[in-house]
Amino acid sequence: MAQLWGGRFTKETDKKAYDFNASIGFDKRLFHDDIEGSKAHVMMLAKCGIITDEEKDSIISGLDGIKADVDSGKLSITSEYEDVHSFVEANLIDRIGDAGKKMHTGRSRNDQVALDMRLYCRRNISEMRLRIKKLLECLLNVIENNTDTYMPGFTHLQKAQPVTLAHHFAAYFEMFKRDYGRLCDIFDRMNYCPLGAGALAGTTYPLDRDMVAKELGFTAPTANSMDSVSDRDYLIEYLSALSIIMMHLSRFCEEIIIWNSNEYRFVNIDDAFSTGSSIMPQKKNPDIAELTRGKTGRVYGALMSLLTTMKGLPLAYNKDMQEDKEVAFDAMDTAGDCLDLFTAMVATLTFNKDIMAESAQKGFTNATDAADYLVGKGVPFRDAHGIIGQIVIYCDTNSKSIEDCTLDELQKISLYFDNDIYDAISLKTCVDKRLTKGGPAETVMREYIASARDFVGKI
How wide is the angle at C-alpha 188 spanned by C-alphas 187 and 190, nearest 5°? Predict the structure, then answer.
C-alpha cells in the first residue's frame, strides 16, 4: 500500500527494509490512544476553523466506527500497515473519503506518537497504582493479624533481635508506599500534552494546544516543541520506578523462598502458587516467587536499554526512539503480572507461628535485652556487653539458650542477675519494650496500623 510519506520517493522501499522499519507489530497496542488523540485533534481543528464542522463530524464518526470494528474483531490491525497511525488514517480515508485526508492537518507522526505514548503510559501508571494499592491492602491485613507473632529479625542473614511478623511486613509496606508515591510523582510530571509540536518546530496553523490538552486531561501543553517530540524522560522515569518496584518484590520473594525452605519452615505457600517436580514426588517449589525474582532482571534490562538508546541522540526526533516501545511494553506487562501474582500469593500464605517464635528464642535474639537488663542494674553497657558475650559462649558450648540457663549458672558469670532476668528477656518483653516510633511494640504497631489504614483509604 502507499505510504503516508511516499510522495517524495520514486521507488518502493526494499521489503526487508520496510519490515525492519515497521512498528505495527508492537505499536498496535496504542490503537485506542491514537483514536482518542485524533478525535481531540480534529475537534480542535474545527473549533479553530481549519476544517468544517461537517468534516469534523464525519472524521469522528469514522474513527468511532473503526474503533468499534477493531474492538469487535470485525477489523484486524495487520502488518499490511507500517504503524498504527497509518492503519487508522488509511481505514478512515477508505470509509469517509477526502474528509479523512484532512485529519492529519497540523500534525506530524512525531507529535502524534509522542501523544499516544504518553496517553498509554498515563493509563498504565493508573493501573499500576491500583495494583500497588491492592498489595498494600493485602500486607496491611497480614500486619493487623500478626502484631503478637514473634520471629527473629535478621542482619547479615543472622538472627539479630526479636520482632514480630507485623513489624517485618510493615517494612515492605513502607517500600511499596514509596513506590506508590513515585508513580504519582511521575504521573504529574509527565501529564503535559505534546500534540501541536509538529515534527519539531510547531506549525503555521492556528492551533489551540490548550484546548487539546484540556480535552485529553493534561495539565497543560508542553512548553518546547523540540523537547516535546524528543523527550523520553517520563518513560525512563517510569521504567526506573518499575525497576524499584521489582527490586522490592524480588527482596520480598527472596525472604519468602528462604522462609519456605525446610530449614526455616516459617511459611507455607498455597498449592495454587507452587509447582512440583517431574522426578521428585515430595517437592513443592516456590516457582512464582522465584520467577518474580528472576523477572526483575528483565525489567532492569528495559530501563538500561532505553537509557542506552537515548544517551547519544541529538535533537530532535530520531528513529532510534522507536526502540522505546517494545522494551517499555514488556516491562509494564511483566511488572503488572508480577504484582498481581505476588499479591495473590501473599494473601494465601499461612505462617507457622510456633516455629517462628522458637527460632527467635534459640537464636540469642534477646542478648541485647539481657545486656540492657544488666545496665538497669548499674553495669556499664560495655561491661554488660562482655558479660552477655561470655554467657552466649557458655550457651553455645552447652546447647542452651539464655533463658534455659538456671539462675545459678547465670550468677557464676555475673552476680547482677536475679530472678527477674527471665521476664526481662522473654520475647514479649523484648518486643513490647521497643516503644520508639517505628519499633515493633504492639502499642506502636497499633498506631502504625491506624496510620497505614488511613493512607490506603485515601489513595
Answer: 65
Packed helices 287-310 and 233-259: angle between N→C axes, nearest 10 degrees? 160
Query: 277, 278, 385, 399: which one is catalytic?
Result: 277
Dmax (CA) for the chain in angstroms is 101
pLDDT value at 282 more than 90: no
Q: What is the DSSP string of 231-245?
A: --HHHHHHHHHHHHH
The answer to whether domain 358-458 has CATH 1.10.10.10 is: no
Q: 343-361: per-residue pLDDT in tens?
A: 999 999 999 999 999 999 8
Of residues 129, 193, 148, 151, the one with CA closest to residue 339: 129
The DSSP secondary structure of 306-372, one letter per residue, reads HHHHHTTPPSS--GGGGGHHHHHHHHHHHHHHHHHHHHHHHHT-EE-HHHHHHHHHTTTTTHHHHHH
Full DSSP string of 21-62: H--HHHHGGGHHHHHHHHHHHHHHHHHTTSS-HHHHHHHHHH
248 given a catalytic annotation: no
- Determine the average pLDDT of the residues in 14-35: 86
Amino acid at 380: P
Predicted TM-score of the model (pTM): 0.93
- d(C-alpha 244, C-alpha 266), whole Å: 26
Distance CA 42, CA 59 (A): 8
* CA dist 128 → 245, 258, 328 (Å): 10, 27, 14
Domain positions in the chain are: 6-105, 116-138+174-205+219-353, 358-458
Helix (H, G, I), strand (E, B) or coil at 437: coil
Identify whether 277 is a catalytic site residue.
yes
pLDDT on residue 5: 47
DSSP secondary-structure letter at 12? Answer: P
Query: CATH fold of 116-138+174-205+219-353, please?
Result: Fumarase C; Chain A, domain 2 (1.20.200)
Q: Which CATH code is given to the segment(s) 6-105?
A: 1.10.275.10
| Catalytic residue chosen out of the listed positions 72, 156, 278, 399 | 156
Distance CA 442, CA 195 (A): 54
